[in-house]
Specification:
Bound molecules: ligand GBH
Keywords: Glycosidase, Hydrolase
Radius of gyration: 21 Å
CATH superfamily: Glycosidases
CATH topology: TIM Barrel
Largest sheet: 8 strands, parallel, barrel
CATH architecture: Alpha-Beta Barrel
CATH class: Alpha Beta
InterPro entries: GH (IPR017853), GH_1_N_CS (IPR033132), Glyco_hydro_1 (IPR001360)
Catalytic activity: Hydrolysis of terminal, non-reducing beta-D-glucosyl residues with release of beta-D-glucose
Distance between the termini: 21 Å
Number of strands: 13
Order of helices and strands: EHHHEHHEHHEHHHEEHHHEEEHEHHEEEH
Protein name: beta-glucosidase
GO molecular function: cellobiose glucosidase activity
Structural class: alpha/beta
Number of domains: 1
Helix content: 40-55%
Amino acid sequence: MTVTKKLPKDFAWGFATASYQIEGAVNEGGRGKTIWDTFSHTPGKVAKDDNGDVACDTYHRWNEDVQLLKNYGAKVYRFSIAWSRIIPLGGREDPINPEGIAWYNQFIDALLANGITPFVTLFHWDLPQALYDRYRGPLNTNEFAADFERYARVAFEAFGDRVRNWITFNEPEVFSTGGFANGVHAPGRTSDRSKSPEGDTATEPWRAGHSLLVAHAHAVKAYRADFKAKQGGQIGITLNGDWAEPFDDTAENVAAAQRKLEFNIGRFADPVYLSGDYPPSMRAQLGDRLPTFTKEESALLKGSSDFYGMNHYTTNYVWNRNEPPTLDDQLGNVLKGFISKDGEELGPPAESPWLRPCPWGFRKLLNWLWNRYQTPIYITENGCSVKGESDLGVEQAVHDTYRVNYFKGYLENLLLAVFDDGVQIRGYMAWSLLDNFEWADGYTCRFGVTYVDYKTLERTPKESGKFIKKFFEENVEA
Ligand code: GBH
């Protein structure tokens, strides 16, 4: 490492979580049911049939989480609001739940009292069940966008005097693919009739993603028109993205890697940060299965994010698929893997089969995003699971050397991207503050820098949490 400069004093570093993954208390405080309650209680959908009924019990143990953050020295904390705690049925004519507002109020106040700045995600996949029952949620663009805008307004109104950093949607790509293409996430729709009686993988994921974009545009318009001037905050969206390294330097594989980046990232980032429309490569492959934006929607979308919220975990080698694209393809008609043409594997396996550490891929993706979108970046998630960690007791699990090495590599490359490459990065939030409900993997897969004992719900810092504290103490100006 050659970097000797330091990140600025106001660099926004900390940790991230999401409501359904940590809160528990699903039947308390007037919370309405969500599609993840339904999905996780459907046998066979989640590993070991786990669910988020208790999770980390943050609903009751919120003060422990605040103290943990304080002990790590975190400057910021990214968490999400459960839409159905605020508006149990979700819709724009439905009643607001004061108990839900009060819960988030006390939590936000506790963060601020401890010097921690909140970054609030409005939607991290836990759609109110009532909106799914009424009109299939994001499969109905106009209804969904109108209901989301109203929910966003309620949140800005209630919390915006203290919350100055808003994220509309977390990972629309993962939500639409998991929920509407392969059915591994709620609401579990897919063309695969062995998994779901309803769904159309050829069209629904593109419609669902489209609706989230339109809803995002309307919520941002509302914030800028009616709240920003008096509240003085910023608002954006968070997108997942893996680096795509061409398998070799043949023109077709270089083009394939670029196309993969456009399907995975450009699908949401081009409309918001670049052109107000989908990448041409997507229109070419998907034709009218990909919805179109009206002129007004395009204009609203373009420039609709004050920052680039980046969730990043891994890298793939990518090569062209030499056959016509299938109707269920989500990736741009490419194949991907972890082994290079010289037979070398990207980093050692994690617990999650899709994840291999590749710090240089992070740096390449930061440069790709900066060059294409020229928008300051917050890394809103980055982290890893550790193979076999769930088989260990707390005494061993806290010695998470694999995760320490992961963060070390990625954070060194963050410094290189900032100081050697000139990428503007304003913050970094590690995923995750706590071991938590890892969606379809349930509790079998841990991403926390803090160990959670799911029997006692006790929290114990791992070495990775201490590493992050030390890293930022050393690399941020005092
Ligand atoms: C994030 O999603 C989420 O925002 C967060 O809630 C989650 O806990 C965290 O990351 C850790 O997973 O199997 O090759 O088809 C990560 C997105 C979604 C990336 C599933 C990998 C599987 C690709 N992940 N995806 S594959």
